[in-house]
Amino acid sequence: MNKKDKDIALFVAFCIEEYGAAKGMTGEQVFDLFSEYGVTDYLCECFEPLHTQGRQWLIEEIDEFIEIRKNKET
Q1: Which end of the chain is more exposed for a tag (fewer CB within 10 A), N or C?
Q2: What does residue 56 show for φ and ψ, rounded to 5 degrees?
Q3: Which has the closest alpha carbon to 11: 60, 56, 44?
Q4: How many domains does the chain have?
Q5: Residue range 7-52, pLDDT digits in tens
Q6: What integer pLDDT is reported at residue 17 of this predicted model?
Q7: C-alpha angle 3-50-4 in degrees, rounded to nearest 5
Q8: Spatial contact of 68 and 62, defined as CB atoms under 8 Å apart
C-alpha cells in the first residue's frame, strides 16, 4: 500500500470513529450507514479537499451527504 492509500485509509477510519463518537454509534453501525449511502466512496474520492477540514465540519458534511442520498431514494 502506498503512502496516499494509507493516508486515505486513516482518514476514513478517523471519519468513522469521529462520526460514531458524535452520534453515539458503534464503528460497525457507522460503517453500515456509510456503506448504505456511499459515504466511504465519497470520502475516498474527495480525500484531497476533505482531509484538510476540521472534525465538526466533516461531521456536518457527512450528515448533509447522507440527507442528499436519502432524498434521492424517495
Answers
A1: C
A2: -65, -40
A3: 44
A4: 1
A5: 999 999 999 999 999 999 999 999 999 999 999 999 999 999 999 9
A6: 97
A7: 10
A8: no
* Residue 18 in grid coordinates: 469521529
Q: What type of residue is 29?
A: Q
Global pTM?
Answer: 0.92
Name 40's Cβ contacts closer than 8 Å, sequence gap at least 6.
12, 31, 34
Give the separation between CA 1 and CA 21, rounded to whole angstroms. Answer: 28
Structural domain of residue 9, as residue ranges? 3-73
3-state secondary structure the chain: CCHHHHHHHHHHHHHHHHHHHHHCCCHHHHHHHHHHHCHHHHHHHCHHHHCCCCHHHHHHHHHHHHHHHHHHHC
Distance separating alpha carbons of residues 74 and 69, to the nearest angstrom: 9
